[in-house]
Amino acid sequence: MSRLGVLGARLYRGEVGYDFVGKRKIWYGISILITITAIVGLAVRGLHLGIEFQGGAVFTTPSTSATVTQAQEITQKASGHPAIVQKLGSGGLRIQVTELDTQQANAVKSQLADSLKVDETKINADLVGPNWGETIANKAWTGLGIFMILVVIYLAIAFEWRMALAALIALIHDLTITVGVYALVGFEVTPGTVIGLLTILGYSLYDTVVVFDSLKEGTKDITKQTRWTYGEIANRSINSTLVRSINTTVVALLPVAGLLFIGGGVLGAGMLNDISLSLFVGLAAGAYSSIFIATPLVADFKERDPKMRALRKRVLAKREASAAKGEPAEAGADAGAPGAAVGSDEDDPQDAAPAVAGQRGRGGRGRSTGRRR
């Protein structure tokens, strides 16, 4: 078995673990800092909307020796509007100009043919009206809103409202970071970007639901035992699914990274950037939020419940009593055990963590039999 497989097995059995929930304030602080940076970038730089949302024209030229800067200057002089120029892998140019009607687009097309020394009939011009772009934008917002509502309803039914609220906050966190990165790097926002955003929300929910399912199983009849608090079981659920989340995220990021860095960067296929950047940033943010944001938030919400507060007092009181008697400390928040259902106090001996296996109580049945021998 590989080292990663051995680590995953040890995390699942509770032999090792990391206190994600106990250090949640650190993760909250990091997320708040990243989110503020994204919001500031969005407010200062704004989003660079494509012509699908603003309306305008896109000109695609055949292979030409003109540089991107030269083509940009020629287009801006001919149209009177800012132009975005991308070099295509075939040697041609993709020139985008907003706020052009049909007559203006024809004039710009003729000027480009003369200045770039290419055949006018070989320059392809696509026009998009501003009304159509506004319709696309409204449909995108509507689809995103419906998606959020359905997600909250489903999670509230399948799990509980606290988990639904935590998942919604994590999704908003992922969206804000992704949109902020688009504003900071200046990539164009197109319908492909919207598709990418909806896709990464699904990936983010997948990781979150996996942890929530483990947490749901691990907290069955939680108030009937005095071994672990809710936050400790939540931490165990994160650790037991940690390797699975990392593996699925890495496998999903590799092909997306190929689209972004090789397709868009090396090969010059700039039209891949709009969807690949949203997927790359969103997948990474989704994996982060499912581990460091969603489940710790559930633990915060849940431990404000009077029953969970009472449980925490009983657990701490039992540990203090055990420590006063000099008995071995039971495994608590230090290890990440599997998310198995928590039984009653009578079942505690069988549910003991590996660190205290063999010490089952005062009866001494699990103790060393050295004296008899």
Describe the structure.
This protein has 373 residues and is an alpha+beta fold. The protein has 2 domains: 2-45 and 133-307, Multidrug efflux transporter AcrB transmembrane fold (Up-down Bundle), CATH 1.20.1640; 56-128, Alpha-Beta Plaits (2-Layer Sandwich), CATH 3.30.70. The protein is 62% helix and 7% strand. It is built from 12 helices and 6 strands. It has helices at 3-13, 24-45, 51-54, 68-79, 102-116, 130-158, 161-185, 191-218, 230-240, 242-266, 273-302, 306-324, and strands at residues 48-49, 56-60, 83-87, 93-98, 124-128, 188-189. The strands form 2 sheets. It has a 4-stranded antiparallel β-sheet with strand order 3-4-2-5. Strands 1-6 form a two-stranded parallel sheet. Helix 2 (24-45) packs across helix 7. It starts with a helix and ends in a 49-residue tail after the last helix. Mean pLDDT is 78; it is low at 331-373.
Helix percentage range: 55-70%
The appropriate CATH architecture of the largest domain is Up-down Bundle
Number of helices: 12
Shape: elongated
Provide the number of structural domains: 2
The total strand number stands at 6
| Side-by-side strand order of the widest sheet | 3-4-2-5
